[in-house]
Amino acid sequence: MTGVETSVRPFHPVETSSKEFWAKTAREREESFAALRAAAPVSWQPQVEDPWMPEDIPGYWAVVRHSDIVEVSRSNDVFVSGQGVTFENLPPDVLRGSQSILAMDPPDHTKQRKIISAAFTPKQVQRIADQIEANAGDIIDGVAGRGHADLVADIAAVLPMRTVCDMIGVDPADQRDVAHAAEVITGWNDPDVRGGRNRGEALAEVGWYLTKLGRRLAKERRADPRDDLMSALANTEVDGETLNDVELSSFFTLLCVAGTDTTRQTAAHAARALTEYPDQRAWLAEDFDGRIKGAMEEFVRWASPVMTFKRTCVQEYELGGQLIRPGEKVVMFYAAGNWDTTVFDHPERFDLSRDPNPHLGFGGGGAHFCLGNQVAKTQLRALFKQLLTRVPDFTAGEPVMLEGNFIHGIKSMPITFTPER
Ligand code: HEM
User: Fold this and answer.
1) What is the 95 CA–ligand 1 centroid distance (Å)?
2) What pLDDT, in 10s, does the model give residues 195-235?
3) From CA 261, how far away is CA 158, in angstroms rounded?
């Protein structure tokens, strides 16, 4: 165990911070992760190159082993979320307005998650399952006769956005703008996604748009409840507590972002993998209903759509042989944990029959574990049922990747297939 001062601690020679590192492919990054898992599962790294990183943060601990990621995720009293969960130090108003419960600790997190969970039950998910299937059918209706499409823009991005908007009760006329705002919030590192504008400007604009829409919806549903999630959230009382309009609009923003991009990226990576591994596609198609449940877990492991989440250490703690000090940042690399050979046999194989599959795609467990994982799976099931039955010979072409260290994103990807008659 080392106990050196933060300021003199040397950085590990295998680095995970530079723009060059994040510009590599996932396979190339995995070479570094494999080296770190073997030699330095908890390594001290230089701060990421970013104008929003304050100079007094000297570095962070990179956590790459499956068991350590689980340990950090489940030790919510030691590794807290309240100072933000993404690499960059987002301005406090952006943090408050967009990350909601994701960037909260007890007691606020406990209180809000309890209220949200009460309105986010399996019954709610069931309520929207038929709608999700109808939407998936409708989306494929729109492209099936053409023989080609952009897998992301025309298919994978549309279903999650419609699902979240239907759940919350967003008017269909606002859905495109909501989708655009969500895309900027997760893809702000990528100049294409920002439309060439500077980050502060682009983020402020879409953040304000979602905040205003969220507050309006909260007010309207409090006064005139309907059968949707916003009405349930605005009117649910747990232990005498309710959410106010600011809390509701922040959660609305989180849901628009956390609930859309992740599912869309999983669908895009899975479509590409089903093209690259025809034997796996054939295996799944042979008994779709019997095999999709396990297959979806592998879709998520393979995609690892959320690449990193950060925590801040609040008390001395030993992890992976390193002494972590209060105030130090700890970053979990989910993709690295998902390729840990001590947990996954041949992680480099896209194996839809993998069982068990304790991947970290939805987080490593603990208080923040993904609240929408069932909603995500309901969508993946509906979408791939449509694809594999209606355009079963689809071929996904070369993906155009998103820049950045947060979302493992595909911006666009052509898909071709025999047109449906
Ligand atoms: C394949 C799709 C998805 C992936 C990979 C994913 C991944 C994640 C991850 C990694 C976390 C953080 C876990 C942690 O810190 O321990 C998270 C949290 C969350 N997710 Fe998801 N997510 C997905 C879909 C969704 C959907 C569809 C929704 C909602 C409709 C959703 C809502 C949330 C919420 C509300 C949180 C915050 C929970 C908390 O902080 O207590 N997610 N998700």
Assistant:
1) 16
2) 878 888 888 889 899 999 999 999 999 999 998 899 989 99
3) 10
CA–CA separation, 52 and 54 (whole Å): 6
Please tell me the distance from the alpha carbon of residue 223 to that of residue 234, in angstroms, as a whole number: 9
Q: How far is the CA of 346 from the centre of ligand 1 (A)?
A: 26
Which ligand 1 atom is at minimum distance from the Cα of 376?
27
Q: Kindly report the protein residue whose alpha carbon is nearest to atom 19 of ligand 1.
A: 370
Beta bridge partners of 415: 149, 396
Which residue would you say has higher pLDDT here, 262 or 58? 262
Helix, strand, or coil here: 317? strand
Beta strands in 64-120 (DSSP E): 79-80
State residue 195's pLDDT score: 80
323 burial (CB, 10 Å; 0-12 / 13-18 / 19+) is middle
Tell how far the Cα of 411 is from the centroid of ligand 1, in angstroms. 20
Element (H, E) at 59: strand 59-63
Instruction: Check whether 44 has a pLDDT greater than 90.
Output: yes
C-alpha 89 – ligand 1 centre gap (Å):
20
- Tens digits of residue pLDDT in 90-137: 777 777 777 899 999 999 999 999 988 877 788 878 889 999 999 999
Mean pLDDT (whole number) for 315-325: 97
Q: How far is the CA of 259 from the centre of ligand 1 (A)?
A: 7
- Residue 153 has a CB neighbour count (10 Å cut-off) of 14
Q: What residue ranges line ligand 1, CB within 6 angstroms?
A: 73, 101-102, 113, 164, 254-255, 258-259, 262-263, 266, 300, 305-306, 309, 361-364, 366, 368-372, 375-376
Of 120, 332, 362, best ligand 1 pocket probe by most atoms within 8 Å of the beta carbon: 362
C-alpha separations of 126 from 35, 267, 292, 360 in Å: 44, 21, 18, 25
* Domains of the chain with bracketed CATH: 6-416 (1.10.630.10)
Nearest C-alpha to atom 32 of ligand 1 is from which residue?
A: 372
